[in-house]
Amino acid sequence: MKIMTRIFLAAGLAMLAGPALADEQAAIDGCIDHLRKVGGPDGQSGQVISSEFSQAGTLVMLRDAGGTVWKCIGYNDGTVGDMSIVEGMDDGGGAMAGAGDEGGKTTRVQFEAGNDNASVKGKVTGNGYHDYLLGARAGQKMSVSLITKGTCYFNILPPGSNGEAIYNGSMDGNDAIGIKLPKNGDYTIRVYLMGNDKDSGQTVHYQLSMTIM
Fold first, then answer.
1. 21: pLDDT strictly greater than 60
2. CA-CA distance, 19 to 117, in Å (whole number)?
3. Intra-chain end-to-end CA distance of the chain, in Å
């Protein structure tokens, strides 16, 4: 792991001496931009604590102006696969803004080498949802299973979808087996709540398993 103390401000990032790999720098910049969008007033400035580059995605640790520590997975095109709070400090000035929002969260799923499946645990609250992005090719088959104790479901959305699903868990159940994929690209598995859990703002935990063959 590379330890660094770069300061980022609203005007940009103050770099340390020495050039960084272009791919790693693009991932860092993407994480900073994303923090500015979701981190509230405190997210507009702070420190890059560390970064750890890999071809699968660069792990970037950030501390915002309010002291909240964020973990980010960034990619060499500047996009962000996941951002979450590791250590929160609400100083009353907005350090935790966005942490409890009921909007959407997106995580890119990458299978380990030699595997055709992955399993993740998560939680969703109220009107919120969690999107899992999974790249696949036309003609492959996707299976998805959701284990939960609440009124929690998932939909499978094809590339370019505006909300139209090729599988609707609230109608067809939380076990999708062998869904044939119509085209190449990123498929979205969207986990969400319905009924009283959604309306009352409950937080529901789940385990999501995904396979592509």
1. yes
2. 37
3. 34
Residue 91 pLDDT exceeds 70: no
Q: Residues with Cβ < 8 Å from 96, sequence gap 6 or more?
A: 40, 66, 68, 85, 88, 89, 90
Interior/surface letters 26-35, b for 16+ CB within 10 angstroms, e for the rest: bbbbbbbebb
CA-based nearest residue to 122, from 87, 148, 141: 148
With 0-12 / 13-18 / 19 or more C-beta atoms within 10 angstroms meaning exposed / middle / buried, residue 112 is: exposed
- Comparing CA positions, the residue from 22, 4, 9 lying closest to residue 75 is 22
Query: Locate tokens 């087996």: which residue?
Result: 177
Mean pLDDT of the region 129-144: 94
